[in-house]
């Protein structure tokens, strides 16, 4: 899809959006594509911008310009920056990754978009976002929905990290409870990786059972609509397991 020509006769640039929950692997997939040798050979310029919130047009445009020109820009006026981007991008095939876009306000995107119109046919804008409405707002030509992993795939990631350099005896002793912990990841690869890392330092079954029965998991039962809690629970568990945090908690 990245290497194909433009799907729109009237435009040189296609917008491709990766849509899915936080922690599901959108940025990882985008990085794999961005760093692929065929992609590198295909595009004359590759640009990566982490957008996040707020959608700061000046910061984003400056980041694009600096990667196009290979030097730091002293410009701070948006219109001057946009004009320079338009000049630098004119007639070349470009891959622009806009990672972690949140804003649903089309006015932000409408300011930036015209400066990208002059690039060569076959150029691509790859967007990662948690929100389908953002993909629509950005005029997406190809939307790819990133689904959660199967339970087996999630367990595989968790086990690969948690049991790294462990003996077969430890694996046999802890696999059953490890599978229960892995099921808490709700199909999110980042959660599986974080939880696996948390369990690496825990050697006894009692320690593993403490994680499985942690009060923090009950947050997930408070409000089923707040899906983001599923993503951040493993991060909370890792945070509270830090020695400095444990020491502080014991004094409160």
Automatic annotation (TrEMBL):
<dbReference type="InterPro" id="IPR027417">
    <property type="entry name" value="P-loop_NTPase"/>
</dbReference>
<protein>
    <recommendedName>
        <fullName>NB-ARC domain-containing protein</fullName>
    </recommendedName>
</protein>
<dbReference type="GO" id="GO:0006952">
    <property type="term" value="P:defense response"/>
</dbReference>
<dbReference type="GO" id="GO:0043531">
    <property type="term" value="F:ADP binding"/>
</dbReference>
<dbReference type="InterPro" id="IPR042197">
    <property type="entry name" value="Apaf_helical"/>
</dbReference>
<dbReference type="Pfam" id="PF00931">
    <property type="entry name" value="NB-ARC"/>
</dbReference>
<feature type="domain" description="NB-ARC">
    <location>
        <begin position="9"/>
        <end position="166"/>
    </location>
</feature>
<keyword id="KW-0611">Plant defense</keyword>
<dbReference type="InterPro" id="IPR002182">
    <property type="entry name" value="NB-ARC"/>
</dbReference>
């Amino acid at each position: 899809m990245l290497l194909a020509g433009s799907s729109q006769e009237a435009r040189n640039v296609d917008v491709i959006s990766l849509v899915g929950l936080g922690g599901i692997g959108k940025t990882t997939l985008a990085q794999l594509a961005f760093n692929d040798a065929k992609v590198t050979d295909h595009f004359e310029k590759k640009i990566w911008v982490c957008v996040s919130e707020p959608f700061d047009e000046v910061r984003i445009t400056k980041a694009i310009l600096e990667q196009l020109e290979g030097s730091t820009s002293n410009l701070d006026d948006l219109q001057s920056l946009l004009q320079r981007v338009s000049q630098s991008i004119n007639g070349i095939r470009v891959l622009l990754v806009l990672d972690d876009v949140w804003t649903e306000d089309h006015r932000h995107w409408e300011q930036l978009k015209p400066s990208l119109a002059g690039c060569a046919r076959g150029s691509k804008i790859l967007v990662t976002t948690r929100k389908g409405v953002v993909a629509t707002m950005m005029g997406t030509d190809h939307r790819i929905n990133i689904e959660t992993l199967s339970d087996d795939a999630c367990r595989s990631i968790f086990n690969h990290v948690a049991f790294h350099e462990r003996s077969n005896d430890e694996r046999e002793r802890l696999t059953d409870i490890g599978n229960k912990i892995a099921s808490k990841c709700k199909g999110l690869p980042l959660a599986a990786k974080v939880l696996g890392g948390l369990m690496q330092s825990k050697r006894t079954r009692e320690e593993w059972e403490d994680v499985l029965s942690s009060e923090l998991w009950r947050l997930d039962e408070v409000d089923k609509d707040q899906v983001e809690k599923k993503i951040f629970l493993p991060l909370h568990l890792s945070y509270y397991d830090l020695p400095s945090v444990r020491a502080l908690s014991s004094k409160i």
